[in-house]
Amino acid sequence: MNKGFYLVMAAQALSSVADNALLIAAIALIADLSGPDWMVPLMKWWFALAYVALAAFVGAFADAFPKGRVMFITNGIKFIGCALMFNLHTLASSQDMQLFYIFFAYTLVGIGAAAYSPAKYGIVTEMLKPELLVKGNSWIEGLTVLSIIVGTVLGGVLIHPDISPTLQNTPGINQMAANRTEAAILIIGFIYLAAAACNLLIPKTHVHYPQQKTNPFALIHDFKGYVCVLWQDKLGQISLAVTTLFWGAGATLQFIVIEWGAQQLGYRLDQASILMGVA
Fold first, then answer.
1. Is 3-205+214-278 assigned to CATH 1.20.1250.20?
2. pTM of the model
3. To pair with 95 at 20 to 30 A between CA atoms, which of 35, 198, 212, 261?
4. CA nearest 39: which of 100, 90, 83?
């Protein structure tokens, strides 16, 4: 393992922690605005939909530029989504428009995350020797799962009634954040900036790929062929099926645990988020 790979892991971990902490902050914002119950799961659904809708295109985008730069750009898209959520009350005055901006902002984060993924996995093949690829991908996957847990817990901690007043009274934060969710989102924004700093430090691998196609129909046609090849392969079938079930079940359980904690244990969002991380 080299220094560049550790920077990739750090950037991935920080960016993923921020994604999941921002989800909890977004749920808190929706609750503060008395938003509809259906909005939270639909917001997460749109986040995941970006991975499906952009699947045929993000690989070509990642191969068209140095992958460290792609990670920086896509992390920047996430940061813009975070910034939109932070400036919610400046951008809109009506409750309906504020709810729309929350939805739109987290969808934007999902687009950034979808475009980020092929770059983070692709750069592993450029940095590590073939015999280290399984180990390297295991580290990336393990950190991704851990960052989801840490990010969810962090989101709960940042909006906790014992923590948020301290955050709001912290010099610097008290001048920019007017309430608990703004203070939490501000901290999350700094985590995105830390991930961006790691992206900039990732050394260039000097690996060049053939000119990528730009015609969307050609990209969709190629992607369809790749999917068919994977599903015709026995190991490919297992890999795709297990990955789909694992991440699908994980995303569903994320909301089930929060709702179960609220309904059965009387937990607030911050408590249920911490419970989910512990569970």
1. yes
2. 0.89
3. 261
4. 100
